[in-house]
Design a protein that fits this description.
This protein has 159 residues and is α+β, with helices and mostly antiparallel strands. The chain is 28% helix and 31% strand. Strand 4, helix 3 and strand 5 form a beta-alpha-beta unit. The mean pLDDT is 92.
Length: 159
């Protein structure tokens, strides 16, 4: 699987596939339903999909609140089909979200399982740092999460 995925705005017709991938990727931690994804789109949040041809292999979403210089963005989700992990789709999805956050000059936050070393390394490479710990954040598994922060484009990490 060396094909590079194309990142495009997520299509509403792909929400069922997103929910199916959630079941595979996050089965132990209350995976999102089709309705949850639809609600995110209805609220105007920014969602993109990674496509190989017409096949959705990954998805990612971002919410931005406020306006520069006080805008904040939160990565709501990133998921990639296990059969396509390790080939750059997750990185491409994250870059699309960060480009959107940078357009708004928004500081970006996310939560990630403390045991997800691959994701943590990817986030660090894209300018995130660990700023907090949320005990038992993921339910029902009770797994802990790091809160990570990336400063708004063109600003220093401290402010």
């Amino acid at each position: 699987m060396t094909d590079v995925a194309q990142v495009l705005k997520l299509r509403r017709s792909d929400l069922k596939r997103c929910a199916e991938l959630e079941q595979v990727l996050f089965s132990g931690d209350d995976p999102w339903s089709w309705e949850a994804f639809a609600s995110e789109l209805d609220q105007g949040h920014y969602y993109v999909g990674a496509y190989l041809g017409e096949q959705l292999i990954g998805y990612a979403g971002l919410a931005v609140v406020g306006r520069a210089p006080h805008a904040e963005a939160e990565v709501h989700t990133i998921g990639v089909d296990p059969d396509h992990q390790g080939h750059g789709a997750g990185k491409a999805l994250l870059r699309a979200l960060l480009a959107r956050a940078d357009e708004q000059r928004a500081t970006t936050f996310l939560e990630v399982r403390t045991d997800n070393e691959t994701a943590i390394a990817m986030y660090r490479k894209h300018g995130f740092e660990i700023v907090g710990l949320r005990k038992r954040y993921y339910q029902p598994s009770g797994a802990d999460a790091h809160t990570m922060r990336r400063p708004a484009a063109g600003t220093e990490a401290g402010g």
